Protein 1
Amino acid sequence: ETVRAGTVPVLGNSFHDRNVERFKHTLSSAMLVSLLAALVALLVYAGLFICVPLFQIPEELHSSARWFVFLMGMSSFLTVAASPLVSMLAVSERMTAFNFANLMMRLSDFLAGAFILYAFSKLSPADAIVTSGTLYTILGSIVLFATCGYAIYTEPRISMRLRFVKLEEAKLFTKSAGWNAGANFAMSLYSKTDTVIYNLFFGLFGSMV
């Protein structure tokens, strides 16, 4: 959300300027900034991967928990890295396609979540965790790749090359995303930190509550 909020205004300004060369530089710079942000997200998940034993999780579920964290990390990496292409649907004012893509992403999340209810009654907890995480990542990736492919296919001005990257354009994205990053980080702490605290003090039951 932070990367998307930072890219839409800058990409929109460049796209509607009708300067094809400038837009090439802007989009390529946005992709590089998003890739760097995706790598940062991957590092955060790597930290969680290492810290799994610190949480109150039964030892027999450590391997499954690590696999789940790995899958979520890959999913986040792809989502953040591809965010400029997804944002292009909004930038080019194809709101029907943009909203449909978001609906499909939420639907894939729902299907993966609904599968958990089924899986835990049919599979062992370890297998259910791995299977639900795999399903979440696969469905989300399919929707993401389809959305990016549609954006590239329907917008001829999309052209990304490393040689098009400009430091000035990259700085615009970091400035645009700066305040959004602070707000989203605070919201993440608000909505996620309590789950971590509950787990540390009350175990898996606390996480469920």
Protein 2
Amino acid sequence: FNLREIKFWTKNNGIATSDESQYYNSKEAIYETKDGGKTWIELKNLPAKVSGSYELSKNGIVYYLPQLTGNYIGFNLTTGETTTYQIPSNINPFSLYLDNRDNLYLITEEEKEGMLIYLKEEENYLAIKFPTKGLSVIKANIFESGISVFAQEQDKFSQKIRFFRSEDFGKSWNEENLPISYKASPIAFFGKDKVWAWSLEDQLQVRE
């Protein structure tokens, strides 16, 4: 299959997603392994087709947006049980995200506000605004109260990549200048503070 991403929640249990591709003769699907990746079986019992990204919690629940909007779904890989969560009508997510504590966020893009993410609390959603209006968000990471965001300028004369950081859960933001200009990919995060980014000069730089 045309591999998009792999995620494990135990040493042996994990899932992988495949993108639709005529070249690779593959379809959009989610596959599960129970033997550390030696064998993979397509999850055909999902209650709805996946739209966009998915997340895997530490206790083996796959969260994703179905093609029909208005809710998101949690599918328990151990029990096969499905839970559907209603989304308020004023929130129209195109993706979702789990942080290091398995808090779930709905990701939206609004014309006036730019990118907004909504943290799912018990009965409400807390809005967090990214400082990226007019930019294209490439990759973001949330670890405890720290948020890191890479975004790219959309001007035809400039495709500069910028890095933003919040230490107080999005209440305030600072733009940081890493010493070397960097590429849009690959980018990796570790823990609350560390960032690995590959530079235009083919050097790996690390933000401590």
Protein 3
Amino acid sequence: PKQQHDFEQLARIISFEYRDLTHCIYRKAFKLRALRAGLSSYEDKYKWTGVSSPVIHSAVKEQTVRLTHQKSVWQFYQVEFERALNKGDIVDIDLVFTIYEPEHSFVPFISTTIEEPTKQLSFKLTIPSSFGITYATREIASCIGARVPFRTERVQFDTNGHLEWDIPKPKIHHYYELRWATPKEFQYDKASSGASTTRDIFKDNTPQV
């Protein structure tokens, strides 16, 4: 069935950066075009199952972000704009999630499902080369955990430990994922201790679990 949408996403950028072995920054940036008048906020969701809770703030000082309700395993939040938008107005959102994970207990990947018309989707991943991680895997599928993905491809980091994945006109209701290995320091610690691994997953805007 045909869906009605409040916004068109001109750009959606999802990034993850290791500042060091225990400190990470997850970031979600959107450039939205209002498809009708009177819109004063934007609603989205995330899933984080780690021991520590991310600290979330808006990098756009005129906007505020607040957690709203939970649905199933998802935490919803709302970004309030400075004013109500007119039809055709363009607004930028930039949310920063600060994460401290001393044991790196999370499964390392970022992902999204396209639920609104989107012109450009981009993933950005930065991992220091000293971590010993040389590649990541990108995947397109019908949903998270799909038995048979549409496409899977290995991609190399550059010499600065950075890679980008740009997807022009991503298909609506398709799932996009970028995953990488756990840093070798934590692989050794977990193997030697025999400790179980808690699944800490950042899944952005993904309706399937």
